[in-house]
Amino acid sequence: MKKPLLIIVTLLSIVTIQSQTLSIDNVRKAALRTSDAIKEGSDVKGYYFFYISDKIDKNTNEYTLRILDNNLKVLKDVKFQDSKYVTILESSFNGTDLIFLFYDSKEKTFEYQVYGADGNKRPFSYSRVLSNKEQKFLDATYLSLDDEEQTLKGLYPLEGKGFISNMPSREEKDYTFQIDYFSTEKKKQWTYTPTEGGKKFIGDYLGNFNGVVYIEVLKFKSMTDQKPDSYILGLDLETGKQLFEKTTDAKYRFYPASISVLNAGKAYIYGQYFDVDANIAKDKALGFAFWGIDEKGKIISEKYCSWDLDIGKVLNVSAKGKIEDFGYLYVHHIVQMADGNIFAIGEGYKKVASALGIASKMLSRNGGMSTIKIKITDMAMIKFDKDFNVKDAKIYDKNSNTVELASGMEFVSAPLLGKLVKYTYGEFDYSYTQTNKDLTSFTVCYSDYEREKNYKGSTFNSISYNDGKITTDKIKTKSDATRSWVLPGKQGQVLVLDYYKKEKRLDTHLEKLN
Amino acid sequence: MNPTNKAIILFFHLFLSSAVFSQLRPVYNFQKDDSILKKTYYEQALQEKNKLISSLSSEYKTDYQEIYEARFSEVSKLLQSTRAVTDMEVHNYLQSILKKITEANPALSAKQIRLLFSRDWWPNAFSMGEGTLIVNAGLMVFLDNEAELVFVICHELAHFYLDHSNKSIKKNVETYNSVAFQSELKRLSKQEYGAGQQVDELIKKLEFGNRRHSRENETEADRYAFIFMKNTGFDCNGIKTCLQLLDKVDDSLLYQPIDPEVTFNFSSYPFKKKWIQKESAIFSQMSNDDSPLTKKERDSLRTHPDCAARILHLEDSILRSRQGEKFIINKTLFEQLKKDFFVEIAEQQFKSNNLSRNLYYSLQMLQNGENTSYAMFAIARGLNIIYENQKNHKLGLITDKETRGYPADYNILLRMLDRLRLDEIANINYNFCMGHKAEMSVYAGFNDEFNKAVKQKSQY
Question: Which of B142, B162, B298 is nearest to B218 (CA)?
Fold first, then answer.
């Protein structure tokens, strides 16, 4: 179970001179259970702090949900009583409405509560009991992470309409996922789950465009299937009805990672591509593919940028995607600016021998650790023109760190290892990318660790693009606080939180990235 | 003369007039504070505090002592900062008004009173309860005449004369230390469930009691203020107009709202709309009055009665009072002070490290043609400091953030400061300085700011 932050928040804010003699502070305490940024896509619109403000009886707590805007001004305190097993897993904002996902760990239920632009709770909410599969997935992933920055990310905003939820589930070797739509205009919901033909489904919400919800699905016929079927699923946003299922096997075997609306309102899916007969567990990706797709699932354009021919022209890339000293590239995000330029933001990683894993293998027959480990290297940014021709690429140095792997990972392909590092281990330094509304600037944020003479500690770094110019910046997050951490802020800014244990004080300040 | 020649001459005439005007642009001379007066007032306040503490009985002595020390600390912070106005001309003016009041009210003449203006921007006046009375410059700039200022001073004098502050302290110390209150707190500290809600109720009850008491004090202070004022010769209608002003002062602007584009749009570096464009926001349609409290509870939490009710209480007395003067002491100085105080407030914000507010007031002055030399210098200086702080990730320490309740034009400026990139700040300031370089060449310090702006711009 994710541990709540052990921060005591004093609720009282009496400023009269007289209150200083009170001992009420010792009686009235509140324990912060969870907090996070509230986002509309990549843009931070506010923050929430969810804390237990009182214990009502042995099964019931009084909770306060404090909602702040992106300037840290308190907008609203919502107080309510509920089971002591309740917490908030996630929130999202769709431009008008705010949604919170409440989880009751005893009843195994999800409840989605919606707040309108007027600040009032909608008269309806959405709730459901979790399946065993979903519960097991939740237990094995989010709830096992002892890190308050690793919040569940499965709620996606649909501007002014509602939210899409993507909830994976897992029982033993049986994987699947469930897509839900929750309207915020009125109580209206639909659910989609893949029903047949596969033992293991992995579904990624790519995005929505022109009334169609695009999902990338990998369907494994068995647990040992090395050539899973990849297809794009199109669902009707209004009804959840399946509109199309389009295989991504064509000239190459293509595994889309995301969708972006680029080039004046056309939807493009993009990701790495392989040889059509490739074994994705072992073989290496050939490069990047960009497919234009319409709302009927028809592919209207295809563009392939190979490592050796296209990206190799601007970076020292070996065939099969390996860049000298950089390793393989894992693409985190792709953005297009109003000037038409497209940027792929990625991070390097490579396989290196693990002394620990080798020792483990020698000492134990089974060997719980892999003889290889992953070394996370530098950040990289590749610039394409609007026709997806590679124009430039640059590597941004950072200190490397390593990830020890479980036994058996020696035989897993580099691209798949990249996905594992991203989603299973969560070890990439990349944090997020934010773009502004008129697409003239974006900011890529990532963390690093410095071991310099004058400073030894964490840094929070940025690569910013603004009106055609690229700048980099870093904030040193080590301070005299007991603990400091960084939350996303509005575009170009971060929220730095400094916790002083002795004073039981939490300082927050927004800082701009240059 | 043909029309073309006439136009050329007119053009040169206007140009020359403007150039002459530029050279003669008045430079604001800041008020000169008197360190001896500050020290004297500090010593007086210290003595007053020590006298109070030495007179305490053993009962709750520690609590009283802590409160008196905290109160003195506030007074001493004010007196030791640049906030307190001790310029001799201003001080003498204020003392002349005080003398007029005390001469008409012998009951006040025995009191040791330290009456001062502060350079704080918010419209307020207050009595610290130990003889220090403060009128913020932020209130003075909105007043229309001396009669209104006299009412403000009489109201604070009444609080002091009636010993409201010390009585409130006594009441609260006794309540908090009472057996009933302490045993209730003790009980709640041991209670496992529902303690928080009961503490909230306990606090609410106390607060309602305090606020009710505070409103009663205000009504009483208004009544005594009228008594003090009616024999001074000032027009008691000033009470009514002052209360009407106070009713809407939080939403009032002294100048026309600013438009950043007017000042920061340059032919070589055009203003970008994206700097101030509004974006989607959580609870964008939430009413400002979103308190979970009932109307009755909200009314119970007010520290002051409604201004309409305050006027109603005194209206008959005002009507019956002798006709008085709006100005007696010095009308010219009063009007001058109102103007000067706006620059003083702006500069105080700079000294207090609030660069966004300093910039806001400077833009107000520039766009409304008041103290424009200072305004231009302050804008150039402010943007240079903002640049340096943004570069060092310290901007959040010297600027406000958009907040409900701030004037709309200030929020637009804050949004702009929030979005500007380093190179944009450098370019804006460079172009701003270039545009005013000629007319500001004789203003002390402007050239330094210009050179800094050039250096910053050269990095892009």
Answer: B162
Q: Which is nearest to B165 in space by CA: B222, B210, B120?
A: B210
Which of A9, A27, A49, A497 has the highest number of chain B CBs within 10 A, making it the mutation to test binding with B? A27
Tell me which of A19, A28, A466 to substitute to probe the interface with B (most B C-beta atoms closer than 10 Å): A28
- Shortest distance, CA B91 to any CA of chain A (angstroms): 29
- What single string gives the DSSP state of each residue in A64-123? EEEEEETTS-EEEEEEEEEETTEEEEEEEE-SS-EEEEEEETTTTEEEEEEE-TTSPEEE
pLDDT in tens, A484-501: 777 788 888 888 777 777
Give the nearest chain A residue to B286 (CA atoms). A118
- Exposure pattern of B118-140 as b/e (b: 16+ CB <10 Å)? bbbbebebebbbbbbbbbbbbbb
Query: In this structure, are strands B132-136 and B114-118 parallel, antiparallel, or unpaired?
Result: parallel
Model pLDDT for residues A385-439, shown as the tens digit of each residue: 988 899 998 889 999 888 887 766 666 666 667 777 776 677 889 988 888 878 8
> How crowded is residue B79: how many other Cβ atoms within 10 Å of its Cβ?
23
3-state class of A368 per DSSP?
Answer: coil
Among residues A422, A240, A397, A255, the alpha carbon closest in space to that of A323 is found at A397
Q: Element (H or E) spanning A24, and its range? A: helix A24-27
Please judge whether A512 and B395 are an interchain contact, meaning their C-beta atoms are less than 8 angstroms apart. yes
Whole-structure pTM value: 0.83
Give the residue from chain A lying closest to B418, CA to CA. Answer: A512
pLDDT at A254: 85
Amino acid at A372: I
pLDDT at B366: 97
Instruction: Tell me the per-residue pLDDT of B90-104, one tens digit each, with 9 for 90 and over.
Output: 999 999 999 999 999
Q: Burial letters for A467-477: b for 16+ Cβ neighbours within 10 Å, e otherwise? A: eeeebebbbeb
Beta-ladder partners of B327: none
CB–CB contact A21 B176 (8 Å): yes
CA distance B112 to chain A (A): 23
The average pLDDT across A462-482 equals 86
Q: Which residue has the tokens 């990849």?
A: A230
The dihedral formed by the CA atoms of B16, B18, B22 and B25, expressed in degrees to the nearest 10: 120
Residue type, position B406, single letter: Y
A73 → closest Cβ in B172, B287, B404 = B404
Mutation target for B interface from A71, A120, A464, A478: give the one with most B CBs within 10 A.
Answer: A71
Query: In chain B, which among 206-235 make CB contacts under 8 A with chain A?
Result: 207, 210
Flag if A40 and B396 touch (Cβ within 8 Å). no
Phi and psi at residue A282, to the nearest 5°: -120, -40
Cα distance between residue A184 and residue A162, in whole Å: 5
DSSP sequence for A392-426: EEEEE----EEEEEETTGGGS-HHHHHHIIIIII-
Contact between B67 and A19 under an 8 Å Cβ cutoff? The reply is no
Contacts of B265 (CB under 8 A, 6+ apart): B271
The residues facing A200 across adjacent strands are A175, A220
Q: Check: CB of residue B146 under 8 Å from CB of residue B135.
A: no
Which residues 6+ apart lie within 8 Å of A140 measured at CB? Answer: A170
Give the integer Cα–Cα distance in Å for B441 and B453. Answer: 15
Average pLDDT rounded to a whole number, residues B283-298: 68
